[in-house]
Amino acid sequence: MVPGTFTVVQKFGGSSVADATKMAACAKHVLKTKSQVGPKGEKTRVVVVVSAMGDTTDDLIALSKTVTAGSDSVNTDTREMDQLLATGEQAASALVALTLQRMGHKARSLTGWQAGIFCDECFGRASITKIDPNALEELLSQDIIPVIAGFQGLAPDGSVATLGRGGSDTTAVAIAGALGATCEILKDVHGVYTADPRLVPGARRLDAVTYDEMLEAAALGSQVIHPRAVELAKKLKVPVRVLHSHEPEKGSTVIVAEDPSAAGRAVTSVVLKKAVGRISIRGLNNRAGVQSEVFSPIAAAGVPVDDIIQEDDGPGTINLTFTLDQGDAPKAAGIVRAIAGTIGAQAVRIDGALSTVSAVGAGMRNRPGVAAALFEALKHEQVVVENITTSEIRISVVVAEADGPRTARCIHKAFDLASEIASSSSVGSVGGTGAGISIEPLREVKAGSAQSGV
Amino acid sequence: MVPGTFTVVQKFGGSSVADATKMAACAKHVLKTKSQVGPKGEKTRVVVVVSAMGDTTDDLIALSKTVTAGSDSVNTDTREMDQLLATGEQAASALVALTLQRMGHKARSLTGWQAGIFCDECFGRASITKIDPNALEELLSQDIIPVIAGFQGLAPDGSVATLGRGGSDTTAVAIAGALGATCEILKDVHGVYTADPRLVPGARRLDAVTYDEMLEAAALGSQVIHPRAVELAKKLKVPVRVLHSHEPEKGSTVIVAEDPSAAGRAVTSVVLKKAVGRISIRGLNNRAGVQSEVFSPIAAAGVPVDDIIQEDDGPGTINLTFTLDQGDAPKAAGIVRAIAGTIGAQAVRIDGALSTVSAVGAGMRNRPGVAAALFEALKHEQVVVENITTSEIRISVVVAEADGPRTARCIHKAFDLASEIASSSSVGSVGGTGAGISIEPLREVKAGSAQSGV
């Protein structure tokens, strides 16, 4: 942090820099921000982070498949894929720098290694290990706008490594942390909403959400910001603002540690995740380590699992159920069926066409009755709940995919999320009678015991 | 040079790596070379250098124009252009490494900076200043094929700089020099020809040419290999072989210091350059420095000049004539007309639709009568010669563009270039009577005094 200056890191996503016109709109926002004074009257400095243009990354992946055709994609060298994919952001950063120069401002593009971004050797999903801000500070001191290629860093062996999808968000947050800056994520949405506006009429943009709420929403499939970036922002205490790259004046959402505006609210948003699959292993003998025997081979195959539910099925016998992306279900089912005999399962069941609808709110932590209110709303709506899982700040229900949208709308309405001001009934407009019912008892609810954070 | 090993640097041009199929053909050639023992029975090591795929560089330049539209292209930051253009070779190197891996071999792509290529800061046309071969030697010692992104290096300020068009040839030669290796330039031609086979029936592939002949041919517009690469090869004494990337078995041409196969030949090839323009400044007072007053502003505007001819126009008065690419002629003429008054020129004439036809041969150095034989052949063919310029190993005539092809064919025939074996009349099948007429007297030939190497 340089005294007397206010620094903003602005990250533009791929659709925001998809062509010259869109790049010009981004550059205008950068220059407008730079021309404004900081909150304490400081001179504003802007650092830009960009993703690859439009579909560039997908195009490069398709190109790589033409040369690796016939070989097992699992064996494709991730190091080479990273050397290839990193070019997308590198090209975009040079083009945005040229755009800023055309508008009469000093700008310079930087690859990840030129910007001092060091990462580990986990090619394809590397983690940033260190930021050396010297090159950036030097440019900023000369009033040159640095335009950093996101999504990449320098691995210990001198290779270029990428941070995985959403890695440009992480780049921006890490740079902001190193510079003592605030971070803006500019993309094609106006911020974070109480629910998907295409799905829930009356969905409202939130002025603020907490890191934890955003983490839950991201894990549930919200595309607004990558969960790794949110985690890093929480760790580095970087305030992150999400806004529309070409209509930044239309409002935004800030992601912070505590959300004062949510005072009185138990639930701040509703997230629907479609195309959920479910695998259920029935009649397992509940001996020590049986869970590991199931989930280790699934993890080894690289299949991500969402929620895990374990319930009793008579004395010493359990049913082990987990949800996952429907597309991954056949692969996971194959693995489970292959080990069913060894682990002594009586049956394996696979379901698809499900949705998970989640109510998320940091205010849930200290408020009883939230789950009860939610269930009462669903009862009024006559929604059949297939499974329930919870975390400290989330209640998720698994429902038939066809019931997903009306379940989301029902919960949105029950917690009065369309209203700007938290109403007295904001614990749930249907319920409110559930005083004394904390989230804990949920673990005994008939639909199964819940386990989160898997 | 590692004892007991034989190292070959193979450079593949853009059309040779234009798609996955072509990359596979390149990879096969690499692996075949690697599997063969060296000339002294050594183990062969191969280093690959690649250009950007097909039209990638042109596409990136077109993309840059979309963002710089409206600004003067002269002011486009060459540093940013280089950061942008370098991505083309970077992507191609990763894809060729993946291709080699698919075929079961260890390979690793390297950007210029990863390969230890250092250059100066002349963005867009940087010169290689140093090669640190440690990274390459380390990979080779592990039997990993390095695949280097050509055309680029690391500038002193940490930026990526490009070496200009043809820079991948230079990369390959420089790497070969640093590794004590031989160099192969693989492209879409089968080697160097006595003339363009599309133009001159009977044109024949040469087994060998000298660095100097190749430099003259390249300066005259031959596209086979970039003159800077030839200069570097001459300086570093790197033998360079030119062959077809997908039909390497169909023969090749080696570029070396002395060509034993050309013994007895005065002329080894004929080169036609089309679309030549000419600007003539008439009636200049021949005071000291007048040439500088003409050519300094032209050079400052970045216009390359081919040949310069100065002739008397009466006592103390000269005509100054120069040829250049026809496309550059209007710009140069504008500059000359702007200074015509200041320098005291009586008239400025601009001509287009000309061609330069050149006879090139290192054997010309010590052989009299070559020019006379050439002129006699042109007399027989009834070609009107507009201007003449020469160098130590070249005679060029400027003719009307329509006369270019038949002039080339006439010279090709006169010097018996279609024949494998140098005939007794190889000094020129028409002439041979010119004993005692060396090249020097040409400077007094009516068409003008000649000056080369400008």
Task: Describe the fold and architecture.
The structure is a homodimer of 454-residue chains. Chain A has 454 residues and is an alpha/beta fold. Chain A contains 11 helices and 19 strands. Chain A has helices spanning 20-35, 56-68, 78-102, 134-141, 167-179, 211-219, 227-236, 290-300, 329-343, 370-381, 404-414, and strands at residues 5-12, 43-50, 107-110, 117-119, 128-131, 145-149, 152-154, 160-162, 182-187, 208-210, 240-244, 252-256, 269-285, 308-312, 317-325, 347-360, 387-391, 394-400, 449-451. In chain A, the strands form 4 sheets. Chain A has an 8-stranded mixed beta sheet with strand order 3-6-2-1-9-11-12-10, sandwiched between helices. The first copy, chain A, has a 7-stranded antiparallel beta sheet with strand order 17-18-16-13-15-14-19. Chain A has a two-stranded antiparallel ribbon with strand order 4-5. Mean pLDDT of chain A is 87; it is low at 424-454. Chain A binds chain B through residues 19-20, 23-24, 60, 63-64, 66-71, 76-77, 79-81, 83-84, 86-88, 90-91, 93-99, 101-102, 108-109, 111, 114, 135, 158-160, and chain B through 19-20, 23-24, 60, 63-64, 66-71, 76-77, 79-81, 83-84, 86-88, 90-91, 93-99, 101-102, 108-109, 111, 114, 135, 158-160.
Write the SSE topology.
2 copies of one chain form a homodimer.
Chain A: E1 5-12, H1 20-35, E2 43-50, H2 56-68, H3 78-102, E3 107-110, E4 117-119, E5 128-131, H4 134-141, E6 145-149, E7 152-154, E8 160-162, H5 167-179, E9 182-187, E10 208-210, H6 211-219, H7 227-236, E11 240-244, E12 252-256, E13 269-285, H8 290-300, E14 308-312, E15 317-325, H9 329-343, E16 347-360, H10 370-381, E17 387-391, E18 394-400, H11 404-414, E19 449-451
Parallel strand pairs in A: 1-2, 1-9, 2-6, 3-6, 9-11, 10-12
Antiparallel strand pairs in A: 4-5, 7-8, 11-12, 13-15, 13-16, 14-15, 14-19, 16-18, 17-18
